[in-house]
Amino acid sequence: MFEAERPATERPGWILSTKPLPSETSTQRRREMALIHFFLLFLSVFPTSLADGVTPEEARELRDEVREMFYHAFDGYMEHAFPHDELRPMSCTGEDTLGSYALTLNKTVSVFETTIRILGGLLSAHLIASDYATGMRIPTYDDQLLHLAEDLARRLLPAFETPTGIPFGSVNLLHGVDEHESKITSTAGGGTLTLEFGILSRLTNDPIFEQVTKNAVHGLWARRSRLNLVGAHINVFTGEWTQKDAGIGTSIDSFYEYLLKAYLLFGEEEYLYIFREAYAAAMHYLFNDPWYVEVNMDSAAIVWPLFNSLQAFWPGLQVLAGDLDPAIRTQAAFFSVWKKYGFTPEGFNLATLNVQHGQRSYPLRPELIESTYWLYKATRDPRYLDAGRDMVASLQYGARCPCGYCHISDVETHNQEDHMESFFLAETVKYLWLLFDLAAGPDNLIENGPYKYIFSTEGHLLPMTPQISLAREHCSYLGAYCRSDDFRWESRKSGISPHTERSNGTYKFYRAQPLINYPSGISSHDSSPVSGIKGLCPGLTQGQRFGLSYFSDSTEEAEYSGKGEANPDLSHSTVVVLRHDTEDNEPSVDPSVLESSDKQPDSYLPQR
């Protein structure tokens, strides 16, 4: 799709920006780091042993073996753990780690985990169970899962009632957000909700779900550094970064993932624009070919020369973005760590070449397997089948337990822990099965179905159906998807104006009722012009065109989209919104949305 802004040959060794090393860094230290870099590059390109090529017949056998792995764990859960959240595969019992969803809704839960695991699962299953085109429709199915998904999402909405639009990390499914709830959340937690909520808006014809998650993305991106980097944790009320480590792994990873996937699924150009800006910055400041490090988001000074296991999704994302060469090199480097230990530890120190202290475990993560699948799909290079075979062997001989597959508490000793995350079934064995099925001659919905599919960050299938991906075509051509009826938002309580009701230390959220009706698929907040269409403001940057604002924590200034005009009063959190409705077609600032934090909570939904 595009290439990194700056070639790797122009990037000095371990310095991922043009800024010099801190003064205390000696010449000897630079030489040591250069030697480490050379050794790691050698290790990644020339692994210590090479597996024999996987034949098509062996690929079929491995596919069948992976299917048996899935049912060993799934049957273990159904027999010993259902309806608890997860299986304890060693003791063959169940445990509630995510909120005991199947038993009660009176729980405080993670907005992020509930969205990607539960809401995404309900929506994906609904789309499969109701789809005639795939031949998998269940005749007796009557949208029961969709109703559950909508009910769950409405219980999550109070989390979005913040001055920045970035949601709280947790919410009580019965009472809303407690007044003592932490105001700190991760970038991934606030920016990895667009797919599930966007699909729900299209299926229910209610734009509120998509609107709040788009506002959250805008709230995060508006607070990026001048290097176009985002930090790991942020205060959802003040918009101040509480952890300024920028990376592609822990606490940030799926923020990048959902920018690109939201564009692919929904076709909205602003997601692509943000992704390209964010990706170029990541490749410039974080990429130390073939590894990635964590840096300070403001200065680009290296904070951690560390490979953490969540980074391993990145080569797969690069395949979707069309940037294959660095993806190939990085996957090889990451897989060299797997080969060394039999699994990838949560952290591997690139300076000491050892497992990072306190990060010795392998909790059955799928990210490296996912990237291996995508690279095989893109290249058909047999090395990725060899890698998949090694991964299957590691799981079978190191992690298999009586009723499922166990966490590895230490990748050097291979000690097992009595826990199995739900993503082992949703992702880890799924990507392994897809890898070998692709080699054997694909016989699955992904390759042979009536649509293309996007995988959510939890591995749920999200079909690019006309209802989801062409919702904004508005019946503009013959055969386009459209509904016969218009819609308007309706309040859950008749006559209620938009507000947040507070009682007993919690917030309750109600939907607003707009003043006008919108045709099917149009959100009230979506007024961004499209290139070549009447209404495009000539001379605007893409950031201005999409109404994206910029905040600077260090100078207490807010600029809108590079114009350099600062709002003089930022003693409270402010959202700057562009309008394109003036007679001379120049952008203007809508004063009605210069919200300050001393207002009541009902003013906290950012607007566009």
From TrEMBL:
<keyword id="KW-0106">Calcium</keyword>
<keyword id="KW-0325">Glycoprotein</keyword>
<feature type="binding site">
    <location>
        <position position="457"/>
    </location>
    <ligand>
        <name>Ca(2+)</name>
    </ligand>
</feature>
<dbReference type="InterPro" id="IPR044674">
    <property type="entry name" value="EDEM1/2/3"/>
</dbReference>
<keyword id="KW-0326">Glycosidase</keyword>
<feature type="region of interest" description="Disordered">
    <location>
        <begin position="1"/>
        <end position="26"/>
    </location>
</feature>
<feature type="region of interest" description="Disordered">
    <location>
        <begin position="559"/>
        <end position="608"/>
    </location>
</feature>
<dbReference type="Pfam" id="PF01532">
    <property type="entry name" value="Glyco_hydro_47"/>
</dbReference>
<feature type="active site" description="Proton donor">
    <location>
        <position position="113"/>
    </location>
</feature>
<dbReference type="GO" id="GO:0004571">
    <property type="term" value="F:mannosyl-oligosaccharide 1,2-alpha-mannosidase activity"/>
</dbReference>
<keyword id="KW-0378">Hydrolase</keyword>
<protein>
    <recommendedName>
        <fullName>alpha-1,2-Mannosidase</fullName>
        <ecNumber>3.2.1.-</ecNumber>
    </recommendedName>
</protein>
<feature type="active site">
    <location>
        <position position="367"/>
    </location>
</feature>
<dbReference type="GO" id="GO:0005509">
    <property type="term" value="F:calcium ion binding"/>
</dbReference>
<feature type="active site" description="Proton donor">
    <location>
        <position position="346"/>
    </location>
</feature>
<dbReference type="InterPro" id="IPR001382">
    <property type="entry name" value="Glyco_hydro_47"/>
</dbReference>
<keyword id="KW-0256">Endoplasmic reticulum</keyword>
<dbReference type="GO" id="GO:1904380">
    <property type="term" value="P:endoplasmic reticulum mannose trimming"/>
</dbReference>
<dbReference type="InterPro" id="IPR012341">
    <property type="entry name" value="6hp_glycosidase-like_sf"/>
</dbReference>
<feature type="active site">
    <location>
        <position position="253"/>
    </location>
</feature>
<dbReference type="GO" id="GO:0005975">
    <property type="term" value="P:carbohydrate metabolic process"/>
</dbReference>
<comment type="similarity">
    <text>Belongs to the glycosyl hydrolase 47 family.</text>
</comment>
<dbReference type="InterPro" id="IPR036026">
    <property type="entry name" value="Seven-hairpin_glycosidases"/>
</dbReference>
<dbReference type="GO" id="GO:0016020">
    <property type="term" value="C:membrane"/>
</dbReference>
<dbReference type="GO" id="GO:0044322">
    <property type="term" value="C:endoplasmic reticulum quality control compartment"/>
</dbReference>
<keyword id="KW-0479">Metal-binding</keyword>
